[in-house]
Write a structure and sequence with these properties.
Length: 152
């Protein structure tokens, strides 16, 4: 598999591709806009998690089939922390969406704005961690580290 991915956008060590993170870039951009355009919350609520393979099935990149195939060969030292980080991202996005919806219903635009900015930064931190894993780091955040970031 490593020979087949040479010259592609798939990391030769981890067999993962950063293109998957584009799915999360979309929700971060939407969350950042919620503060100024609360009606964007409907788009945030419509966003759905996608598995790695599903993202590439829907993708238009040239190496999408290779990315899907390579995922079955990702070494567990990278796959496990990657999947854990993606689960954390999806949970954080779901919780943030519910929180922002409550803020909007309460009509407190300052809290909505603060929460939208905070959560988009936290999601970006987890995306940075996922990117590091894609490029060969096996470090993840445990739940206590995430709780500290969230202030829980």
């Amino acid at each position: 598999m490593r020979q087949r991915i040479k010259g592609s956008n798939i990391d030769e060590t981890t067999l993962l591709a950063t293109d998957y993170l584009n799915h999360f870039n979309e929700i971060v951009m939407l969350l950042e806009m919620v503060a100024d355009m609360p009606e964007i919350l409907d788009d945030v609520k419509a966003w759905r998690p996608k598995t790695y393979k599903d993202h590439f099935r829907d993708s238009t990149i040239a190496d999408k089939d290779l990315a899907i195939e390579a995922y079955d060969y990702v070494p567990s030292i990278y796959r496990e922390p990657f999947e854990q980080t993606i689960e954390q991202l999806n949970a954080m996005i779901a919780n943030a969406t519910e929180r922002l919806e409550r803020n909007l219903a309460d009509g407190d635009m300052e809290i909505l704005k603060a929460n939208a900015q905070t959560v988009s930064r936290l999601i970006q931190k987890l995306m940075d961690m996922a990117s590091a894993i894609i490029h060969g780091s096996a470090k993840t955040m445990d739940q206590s580290e995430i709780d500290v970031l969230l202030g829980d």
